[in-house]
């Protein structure tokens, strides 16, 4: 089931933000995230805020969802008022499975964002999709509506691995869907992989990488399997039906990904993401990683504007009811102080290939950077030019490096 939201102070009923937050809206870029919380079935590893038809209950449905999102967009425009963002640089529709909504509804949501704040002429517009949830016809509609990028949840090319993850698509469907997206004119196509699933062999992951490379996509995300409490996969491991993931195996898989993707012309730009040139990098994720602003639409969606972060109520029914009453769907929020903002900046920027300026660290952090350099975790040449940039070994130990750079 979906994970638990953090605690925080109450969001005003009207969703209003402090004047200090409004004064800097969009100064570092502005994006919109749209959460679509529907799935045809629940994958065994997933604790995202998503719901199957059986889990939804009454009061929420796919049919009226686009109108509810547009109602939050109207509220968002009212909150920002006379200080709207200069433009929307990126839009990312995630889930769940956004493409369970009719393509025309996804088009209406994008049009609403454009009418409200205006899309930049070069805006990146992404939707996530399960491979079995798109067709050439739906992809053509999305492309015509202004979507420029699609991210397909491939996870693996091995049928046995897909079965353990409770994925419903066939082993070859993700690659076929990627080809269909390119055929209708999508500028950028991403395939997601998960590695370290119990029972996955080295040759299984190698075959997945081979298929990704053969698909000719310009972006690949690869993540180690994380076993979240409360998921079906966690329950199976607790009962001893499946072994827990092995860290050494995960490291081997990561090295295999770096070798195969690098040889195919895709370069890492974030620890878990590779792109074929700068233009293929996911600009929306870079917006998150560099501390820019975004408004999150949808149940459970998180937003960040001017150092204020808030999150919406989780259940689609509660979300719809609040908006129908003219109230903000925000559940709670937090105002980031200098220490919290610094910690997040270090955590996120260090994961990027561009790294972190050494002068952003305090003395204790710089001492930690010197230790990481001596341990071969930071690039010596980049360090000499004033930046902390992870080596390949450093990427494998990124969390440990971060801990050493923070108080």
From TrEMBL:
It comes from the Bacteria. GO terms for biological process: porphyrin-containing compound biosynthetic process. Its main location: cytoplasm. Residues 24-267 form the Radical SAM core domain. Gene3D superfamilies: Aldolase class I. SUPFAM superfamilies: Radical SAM enzymes. One of its GO terms (molecular function) is coproporphyrinogen oxidase activity. It is found in: Cytoplasm. Keywords: 4Fe-4S, Chaperone, Cytoplasm, Heme, Iron, Iron-sulfur, Metal-binding, S-adenosyl-L-methionine. One of its GO terms (cellular component) is cytoplasm. The keyword Transmembrane does not apply. Probably acts as a heme chaperone, transferring heme to an unknown acceptor. Binds one molecule of heme per monomer, possibly covalently. Binds 1 [4Fe-4S] cluster. The cluster is coordinated with 3 cysteines and an exchangeable S-adenosyl-L-methionine. Belongs to the anaerobic coproporphyrinogen-III oxidase family. HemW subfamily. This is Heme chaperone HemW. It comes from Micromonospora endolithica.
């Amino acid at each position: 089931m979906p994970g638990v939201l953090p605690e925080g102070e109450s969001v005003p009923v009207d969703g209003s933000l402090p004047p200090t937050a409004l004064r800097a809206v969009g100064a570092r870029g502005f994006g919109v995230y749209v959460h679509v919380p529907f799935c045809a079935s629940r994958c065994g590893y997933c604790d995202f805020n998503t719901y199957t038809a059986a889990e939804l209950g009454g009061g929420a449905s796919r049919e009226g969802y686009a109108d509810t999102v547009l109602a939050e967009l109207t509220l968002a425009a009212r909150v920002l008022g006379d200080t709207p963002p200069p433009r929307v640089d990126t839009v990312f529709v995630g889930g769940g499975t956004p493409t369970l909504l009719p393509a025309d509804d996804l088009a209406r949501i994008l049009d609403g964002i454009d009418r409200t704040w205006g899309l930049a002429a070069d805006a990146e517009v992404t939707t996530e999709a399960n491979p079995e949830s798109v067709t050439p016809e739906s992809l053509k509609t999305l492309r015509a509506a202004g979507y420029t990028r699609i991210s397909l949840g491939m996870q693996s090319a091995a049928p046995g691995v897909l079965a353990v993850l409770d994925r419903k698509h066939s082993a070859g469907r993700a690659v076929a869907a990627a080809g269909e997206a390119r055929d209708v004119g999508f500028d950028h196509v991403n395939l997601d992989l998960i590695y370290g699933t119990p029972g996955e062999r080295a040759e299984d992951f190698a075959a997945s990488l081979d298929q990704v490379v053969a698909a000719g996509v310009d972006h690949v995300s690869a993540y180690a399997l994380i076993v979240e409490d409360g998921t079906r996969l966690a329950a199976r491991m607790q009962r001893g039906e499946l072994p827990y993931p092995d860290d050494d195996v995960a490291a081997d898989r990561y090295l295999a990904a770096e070798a195969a993707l690098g040889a195919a012309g895709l370069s890492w730009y974030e620890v878990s993401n590779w792109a074929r040139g700068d233009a293929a990098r996911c600009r929306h994720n870079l917006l998150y990683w560099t501390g820019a602003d975004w408004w999150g639409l949808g149940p459970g969606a998180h937003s960040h504007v001017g150092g204020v972060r808030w999150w919406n109520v989780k259940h689609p029914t509660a979300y719809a009811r609040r908006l129908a009453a003219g109230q903000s769907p925000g559940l709670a929020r937090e105002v980031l102080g200098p220490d919290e903002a610094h910690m997040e900046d270090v955590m996120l920027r260090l994961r990027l290939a561009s790294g972190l300026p050494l002068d952003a660290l305090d003395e204790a952090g710089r001492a930690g950077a010197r230790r990481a350099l001596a341990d071969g975790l930071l690039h010596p040449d980049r360090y000499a030019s004033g930046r902390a940039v992870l080596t390949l070994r450093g990427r494998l130990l990124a969390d440990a490096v971060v801990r050493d750079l923070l108080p």
